[in-house]
Design goal:
The complex is a heterodimer of chains A (244) and B (261). Chain A is mainly alpha-helical. Chain A is built from 7 helices and 3 strands, in the order E-H-H-E-E-H-H-H-H-H. In chain A, strands 1-3-2 form a 3-stranded mixed sheet, with no helix packed on it. The N terminus of chain B is likely disordered. Classes of the chains: A mainly alpha (244), B mainly alpha (261).
Amino acid sequence: MQSHLAQIHTMHIPDGFINAPTSAVAGVIAVVGLAFCLNGARRQLDEKTAPLAGLVAVFIFAMQMLNFPVAAGTSGHLLGGALAVILIGPYAGALAVSVVILVQALLFADGGLSAIGLNIINMGLVTAVVGWFVFRWLVKIIGVSRPKVMTAAFAAGLVSVPMSAVAFALEYAIGGTGTIPINTVTVVMVGVHILIGLGEGLITALTVGAVFLVRPDLVYGVHDRLPKKLLVTTPSVSTPANGS
Amino acid sequence: MPSPHTHGHDVGERLFVHRHSTIHRLPAEVKTVAMVLFIFTVIMTPPNQFWAFGLFALMLVAVAAFAKIPARVILPRMLVEVPFIFFALLMPFFGSGPTVEVWGLSLSQAGLLAGWGILIKGTLGVVSSILLAATTPARDLLMGLERLKVPELLVQIASFMLRYTHVVADEMKRMKLARESRGFTATGIRSWPIIAQSGGALFIRSYERGERVHLAMLSRGYTGRLPQLVAVTTTPTDWVTAMSLPAVGLLIALTALWIQR
């Protein structure tokens, strides 16, 4: 499926890019953040948490493999933080994305083992928090309809990615081992990530729009704001459990 | 419809290299802790102590040889680090202080050193993770995390992810095949809505599969916990064996820091 020449790719921080003390502290912060999300997800989903968040983690992982062609042999792919929280809520969404990052580091050597905390903060927690609040705030102001939900999803995706770059710049300022000055890093990283964010916002909006069209009840970000006429009454499980 | 890329039941089985060695036999959590600590000793070593990194590399080569993991398994998997090599290569063009001329380019000495540090530490880290995944089945790695008191729920989410990656990836391939058999070719941004539509459908199918899996589990007596099928006993000898790696690493790192002083 790798038919394109280059992928626009947000880098997982490798080992040695941020010094040991900062990486260790980030690990502790990530643990606290994940514990908070675990609690929240358990309240929201109960014992459904593991299968649902697990399958959504797979979905995000699969979406990251989906190539969106840009131009001249380059293509981009989704990061998925904003998409996950809009679809299944802030806690389970952050968990799903964090688990993807954890598995990528542990099994595929994508992102350093010592940098797991940093990567979970940047790509799991920050995108989840920013994406969720931007989305909720916008649907509260502009209301709920397919174009409006897509607009809010676009904004959530667009803002979440540069904020992730801001978190990275902050970590680089505290414990970066490189010699590129922090101002340059911040400007370049945020600049590039605004461009990536445009793509992220577009993919997030289109995907949320597609789900909203068929199953608006599955867009958790608007679960308490759906107009009555949009509420689907078909049972969510229509096939017998077949152990799939 | 099984795809030709599917070799095992889950992604983890593709990464694991079946061999018989002491390193393969060590319990997963022991190996994980040892590897993470080892990487920390690597990243705390100052980059100008070149000899230290030579020794670190030798240690990893020794682990690979001991575990009978050939280079042809390790090298292709190292490609994941390509994106950040560019970052390391940029470093010499920045940084203050004295510069050196290389091929007519004026490069910062501090930048060269920092770039080298990022490159070598990142590479050693990648090889360490590859060795961990090649000598430990993915499921054991996750069970090991649980024995390290990582919350069970997190481990369960991760094991669902492993188990269903192929299922969902195959679903995605079928959708791609369906799109293409209707004459669709992805050309540019104008084809994004079509691809995203498949993404939306994939989410609904994944979510509903999650619900079905949950019901199937409930009907088999699931209460939120997964039973441990094999009891793993970790002996002090296991810990001592595994910890020899980070212990030697620490010795090297401290010596390097002491010389640096």
